[in-house]
Design a protein that fits this description.
Length: 301
Amino acid sequence: MKPTLRALLTAMTLAMTTSACSMLPAFRSTDPGNWAVYYGKDASPEQLRRYDLLVLDSRQYPPLESLDQPRQTILGYASLGEATEQEMQAMPQLRQAVIAENTTWKTYVMDLNAPAWQQYLLQQRLPDILDRGFDGFMLDTLDSPLHHGAQKPELGKQDMAAVYLLDQIRTRFPDAFVMLNRGFAVYPYAARYVDAVLAESILVHYNLHTQEASYFADQDYGNYLGKLRNAKGLNPKLRIYTLDYWRPGDAQGIHNIYQIQRNNGFYPYVSTPDLNSLFPQVTPKQSRNLNTVSHDRHALS
């Protein structure tokens, strides 16, 4: 890609402030903070209908026709930066776009510049999610190619390729609700192309091996808050969601996370890393009835 592309994108982004934000679809949910992420398939319709916004696995999920309500927005999971072995077997040409392996999840990190991967996402994967009845997408794993692109310049500008993809997603699917998980490096250029961001694991570090959870340092959390504040400034309509993992039996710890994230203007959800169970939202009233946390963790004003 040409060295001047970043400058061109910056100019285009600034010029399109009003028009890009006005293109975003209306959010149907009456309470955007009443939400959950659930990748299981055994929850009852009654349980799932309690939430105004749901993020579900887009390949195995409860029957959507039993959930369709005027107030409810249902997003399907889509991986922008990684592919599964099943996808590789179905489309062997995708193997040429692999730049690394994610051994934790047994997936392949993909080159966002690769035409085969771009075409697969834009012409097959994302249209299929909408055809299944979802209202939009939760776009995940963007951090993986961004990380490898920063380490290996020969891979090309993965961040600019990500911006291109998000622009194309907004252009091709103007009525879809788009939530981007992490991908903080592209916020200055892409915040206007999405309806919401999901800041996963910015407050709590959860060790998958030991199953121990602890807060990140104040400086780390504050760094994330700065990035989210800047994104909100670029797109005032942007909704900021957070997802943290904690021990299910520790009610006080869970309530503390909800309080900290809400103090910063976010819509939090707390679960376990497998996301195969539904956990009820902790309401602000419930938080007030428990002991309060000891500090505000950089309250976002």
